[in-house]
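Structure ticket #2291
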Amino acid sequence: MESLHTYLKKVARQGFLVRFITFLGLLAIAWAPLAIIILFVISEPSSRGTGLLVAVLPAFIGVLACWNRLIYGGSFGLSSYGLRPFQKNYAGLLLGWTVGGVSLLLLFMVKGWLGWLSWNVGGDVNLAHLGKIALEGFLVALAVALGEELLFRGWLLTELEHDYSPTISLWVSSMLFAIAHFIKPIEEVFRTFPQFPGLVLLGLILVWARRSQNGHLGLSIGLHGGLIWGYYLAQVGNLVTIRDTAPELWTGIDQNPLAGGMGIISLSLIAIWVRQLGREKSSVRNS
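Resolution: structure written out below.
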């Protein structure tokens, strides 16, 4: 039987689909021991499900750190996928987080001005509770943004670019990013399908963000994390209440601010900014 090492050496010469399936197989192998431990240690069903999901992140990062070496014979680590040393990413991370958070705040302000939401920021706001929510939201946003950016704008985009043009890689990775958010019962897929264009547009923005930073993921992680953090503060922190004064197609399905017409407009403005940032970086490099 062909050894695993020999097979992995051949995988590099195969098409994207073979490499994709191989990656999933290695991820399953790395995740299995963690899953078995969780199944034995945790008995409560909902906590067990959460634990199994959380365990995917360290398994994914572990496989990703080894992938370049195992398949292509390159170096170990995550630098091949845009997660460079912090000093090369922190400026983009802070900029992206600020733009993501502020853009969501401006979106809520416009909706408030239109009478589509009300602010719950009176004198009875519990600042200690809000601070706790802000910290929780930051950690959740950072974990989700880091994981999804390493997967979709890191590994997936890089693998697509091995086989396809930058334009095809851009669109395929963005479409797969959107589709991944619709792994749910079919009735929910149809009900929430208006969210799909916004997710595709967000995927495009995050690819353009990475490309504008010479392949670094800092700006992509920052934009993604800032948007999640702002949403977490507003919804979990109960800072706003959405009114039934406008159609969900405009305000956002399930109160997701980016899953409606106003969200598409907000994302479009971010897209214009990111594209301009990329052109400016390109002109500097070529000058």
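Closing remark: The longest strand covers residues 117-119.
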